[in-house]
Amino acid sequence: MDEERARARIKDLVEIISHHDVKYYVEDDPEVTDHEYDRLMNELKALESEHPELVSPDSPTQRVSGRPVDEFPQVEHKVVMLSLDNCYSPDDLREFDSRVRKWLGEEPVEYVVEPKVDGLGIALLYEGGALVRGATRGDGRVGEDVTSNIRTVRSVPLKLKPEGGLRTVEVRGEVYMPSKGLQRLNEEREAEGEPVFANARNAAAGSIRQLDSRIAASRPLDAYFYTLSYSSGRMPETHHGCLDAMKASGLRVSPHTRVFGSVDEVLGHIASWESKRDGLGYDIDGMVVKVDSLAQQERLGYTAKNPRWAIAYKYPPKQKVTKLLNVVFQVGRTGALTPVARLEPVEIGGVTVSRATLHNEDELRRRGVMIGDMVLIERAGEVIPQVVRPLVERRTGGEREIVVPETCPVCGSTAVREDGESVRRCVNASCPAQVKERLTHYCSRGAMDIEGIGPALVDQLVDGGLVKDVSDLYGLRETDLLTLEGIGEKSARNILDAVKSSMDRDLGRVLHALGMRHVGRTTASLLAERFGSMDALKAASVDELSKVEGVGKVVAESVRDFMVDEGNRALLRRLSEAGLRMGGVPKADGPLVGKTFLFTGELKSMSRTDAGSAVESLGGRVGSSVTKATDYVVAGDDPGSKLEKAKKLKKAVLDEDAFLDLIGRR
Ligand SMILES: [Zn+2]
Q: Which of 11, 64, 552, 633 qualifies as a cystine partner to 217, CB 3.0-4.6 A?
């Protein structure tokens, strides 16, 4: 295609895809199938790689780009970002209302009420409709320029839709992490021996302040916008008018915003959300009440610290006091001993809580908790509840010190605390507790994705002496599995099929599955991308390893230590002899990223293994049964019961031709 036509087509594609991004990520109302979206994206990528000079910064292919930075430049906000005054009771809010009405001389007032999302406040600057800057709130006057990280949040439009009439504007909002995403991220971090995020706000802030935007891109972030703080054009007359214009421009605005004419209605609305907020899927810590008319806002003005026309009504935190009955130490994959508090059951926000995390030995000491203490427990979102602090004033003298064991509670080996570490670890690599955790991690969805092997089966496999390390999975026979309780012929065959299909997983997944310390999913794919094969990684020096962007010295040393260990080398040899490919450069940015496929029946043109490799080489993944996570079911000749299940769950079913189309083989 000549340059002129390429330029026109790229421009069209950028507009079409941006439109569909808004439909999908902002309005939750997709107009095209994922397949069609992927096709457009692939066409754009292909054109851009032919004509790199035509790639524009607002192209949807440019969300993740640029190299890590050493620090964020400081930027001054166009309009100072003041914080809101807080209130905690209906009486406080009535007082706010009478202050407002007094100031305005008894004229009618309308209030806009919107959920206060618990995340990180940001300000975005759009010039001529294009996103040019994203900054943190900072001290309200000067924030940090985190544009490259903000761009990775898919619900943030890189370009505003012209329909909204906004061109050069500053908008404010909140970047947050949905509860499910936080839960998953914390599970991964805990398994890797990394500190977990205490709440969604810390997780969002920690992600947006990453110096490497690829890490931010890997975090499940979302955003809502709630203020139009500057516009080059005419400002609407009301706050809700601003929200409408923002929404029409493709900015994500909370669907739970309401306008009321009296403080009683406002209070009724706030009260009704106090219990409903648990079902939102993200944390809110209150409701924001704003005077709707911008003219009235201007007349009300500001105190030294806060606007007089807005207030945040804070809900009480989800905390309760209960008794700490005991502390048990669990042994993780890396041998780390994690203290877990057993509690007298207590109900917090509709959920009965009987255990809470104490994170690690240092945290235990820092919080100064004793067995028998009355403790304050907090539950935020769907995160594991945590012990905030003991109520020292309620001690009776009968409390006992918590003793951190010096031997592993599972295998009895020494538990050592090394310099610079916050945890004690069991030194025995064949400790059954560690072996089980490693196996469970290896088989988990994010790692080798071996369906059917979860913690319960792992217990049986290890306790029955059938599996001593992950390579033994590949030597399992049907007759072995049939000796286990609750395993029939059918499930035995399914398990063996799932084990077999895991042999094709790419290098990135294998590296992640091996569970090296400090090597999570993102780091594993970076290493796989850079080194391309297990042999190259085995030969890599700490120096070479730390040259990979996003891999620091600690990670490099951890990888090197793993690779030179005789036991690990033997394990890698056994895995390769068992038939694991461990090859292929994974496509972290393939068109099928995030899509899960399931195959049923025979394909005519290729084996299922090849079809699976094709999907993975485009960034997708292959499952072994129909679940909620399945995106496409590919049905060949003589499909099994999976097809019926797929139809029942209304999954997209592709025949062989449609599949070949999708992977570009036709
Ligand atoms: Zn042990």
A: 64
123 and 200 in a single domain? The answer is yes
How far away, in angstroms, is 390 Cα from ligand 1 center?
Answer: 30
Q: Within this chain, do residues 529 and 615 fall inside the same structural domain, yes or no? A: no
CATH number of 344's domain: 2.40.50.140
Q: What is the mean pLDDT of residues 400-404?
A: 92
The range of the structural domain enclosing residue 137 comes to 85-314
pTM of the predicted structure, to 2 decimals: 0.63
What CATH number is attached to the domain comprising 617?
Answer: 3.40.50.10190
Residue 640 burial (CB count, 10 A): 10
Q: What is the signed CA dihedral for 275, 281, 283, 288, rounded to 10 degrees? A: -70
Active site residue 116: yes
Q: Which residues contact 572 (CB under 8 A, 6 or more apart)?
A: 534, 538
* Ligand 1 center–CA 357 separation, angstroms: 20
Distance 515 CA to ligand 1 centre (A): 17
Q: What string of DSSP letters covers 621-639?
A: EE-SS--TT--EEEE-BS-
Based on the fold, state whether residues 410 and 277 are members of the same structural domain.
Answer: no
Q: Which residue out of 45, 116, 318, 595 is catalytically annotated?
A: 116
| Cα of 405 from ligand 1 centre, angstroms | 11
Domain presence at residue 582: no
Q: What is the pLDDT of residues 583-598, one digit of tens each?
A: 755 455 677 877 888 8
Calculate how far, in angstroms, residue 428's C-alpha sits from the geometric centre of ligand 1: 6
What are 245-258's pLDDT values in tens digits?
999 999 999 999 99
Judged against a pLDDT cut of 90, whether residue 621 lies above it is answered with: no
- How much of the chain is in helix, strand and coil states, percent to nearest 5? 40, 20, 40
Task: Tell me, yes or no, whether 336 lies in a domain.
Answer: yes
Q: Which pLDDT score, from 0 to 100, does residue 586 have?
A: 44
